[in-house]
Write a structure and sequence with these properties.
alpha+beta, Peroxisomal Thiolase, Chain A, domain 1, 2 domains, ten-stranded mixed sheet, three-stranded mixed sheet, 18 strands
Length: 387
């Protein structure tokens, strides 16, 4: 029985910041951001969007009459949780009108959605007549005028996992590497993350090399068995650094093809930024919708990394007619329709906060046209609205 991703949905807020403008404002050479880091724009979330609303908005794109009633599992991977106890997945379930699903939230930095995907794989294997909804939804925050400011972003990716998938069939062989390290973390008392940037990059590459070596030893496959490799992308240059460590295993022609497809996988991330748990799958979606060089039967490699740290390398096979499961024109239009913020608007929006004492608060919704929004707080409860 084949199990894998049947559909993928994308949501990102309708405002963004141009990073050339940010570089000029911060006294930085723009090439450092657009070439050195590999980012052009970053999505900025208003108060009316959080990890719950973005998750639900992304899921709206993949749910229909054929799969809605079959959803038996809903997993939300996020490190932007809104509650220390109640899972954001339960809010999402209600907003989507789903019933009687196992619904919970997973946290392990940017690995959360992959943990959800692997859990969904096992669930569908045990319940082949049911489907799972896996979502990665996050707002990446590092603070104004910090080294990580340029690698912020916001968005969500939703995936329907099923037997006999129409998009990507996951192969059973996976390899995992995990260690207790301090490369990135966010204590409960902080709204922004702490990161050791250079160290984190070194660990990311080392973890990739470890899982890649284990995968080769386990399966006997090599880089020549892959048409494309996708990576978790906190910024688009990071995945490239890892890819370059194994490119010498391929011929020059194959290297050029892999690099070209890697660039296709980064196009959405360059415009949206880091979305933590969803970043790997944003890269996969970008590859499938932006590359014209892929065919059914092609093997795609996926490298997931969550700081702290855990990594996993796994693979999938593109299915016949996979192109029909994509919505590239819709996503292109969504990105084009966003409004560019001025620097002052960005800084104001970044510093806007919900009350922390549970007092009543109403959010101005005039500039947010998303189907699902957070409209305010009352008596310590978040009030969501589905338009």
């Amino acid at each position: 029985m084949q199990i894998g991703i049947d559909k993928m949905g994308l949501f990102t807020p309708n405002t963004y910041l141009d990073l050339v403008m940010l570089a000029n404002a911060r006294g930085v050479d723009p090439d450092k951001y657009t070439i050195g880091i590999g980012q052009d724009q970053m999505a900025i979330a208003p108060l009316s969007q959080d990890s719950v609303t973005m998750a639900a908005n992304a899921a709206l794109e993949v749910l229909d009459e054929d799969n809605r009633d079959a959803i038996g599992l809903l997993v939300l991977g996020t490190e932007s949780g809104i509650d220390q106890s109640k899972a954001g997945a339960l809010y999402v379930q209600h907003l989507l009108g789903l019933k009687n699903a196992r619904a919970f939230e997973i946290k392990e930095a940017c690995y959360g959605a992959t943990a959800g995907l692997m859990t969904a794989y096992d669930f569908v294997a045990a319940h082949p007549n049911q489907k799972a909804l896996v979502i990665g939804s996050d707002i990446a925050r590092y603070g104004l005028e910090t080294p990580g400011e340029v690698t912020q972003g916001a968005g969500a990716i939703a995936m329907v996992v099923s037997a006999t998938p129409h998009l990507l069939a996951l192969e059973p062989a996976t390899t995992v590497h995990s260690e207790d390290i301090q490369d990135f973390w966010r204590p409960n008392y902080s709204k922004e993350a702490f990161a050791r940037g250079k160290y984190s990059t070194e660990q990311y590459i080392a973890f990739f090399q470890a899982t890649w070596a284990d995968y080769r030893a386990q399966t006997g496959r090599s880089i020549t068995d892959f048409k494309a490799l996708t990576f978790h992308l906190p910024y688009t240059k990071m995945g490239l650094k890892a890819l370059r460590t194994i490119l010498p295993e391929a011929t020059e022609t194959q290297q050029a093809q892999l690099l070209d497809r890697y660039q296709a996988s980064t196009l959405y991330s360059r415009q949206i930024g880091n979305i933590y748990t969803g970043s790997l799958y944003l890269g996969l979606l970008s590859l499938l919708e932006q590359s014209e060089q892929l065919s059914a039967g092609d093997r795609i490699g996926l490298f997931s990394y969550g700081s702290g740290a855990i990594s996993e390398f796994f693979t999938g096979i593109l299915q016949p007619g996979f192109e029909n499961q994509l919505a590239g024109l819709k996503h292109k239009a969504m990105l084009a329709a966003r409004r560019q913020l001025t620097l002052a608007e960005y800084e104001t929006q970044f510093q806007a906060e919900l009350p922390e004492d549970g007092s009543e608060f109403e959010i101005d919704l005039a500039l947010d046209d998303a189907p699902i929004i957070l409209k305010g707080i009352k008596q310590h409860e978040r009030l969501y609205l589905k338009r």
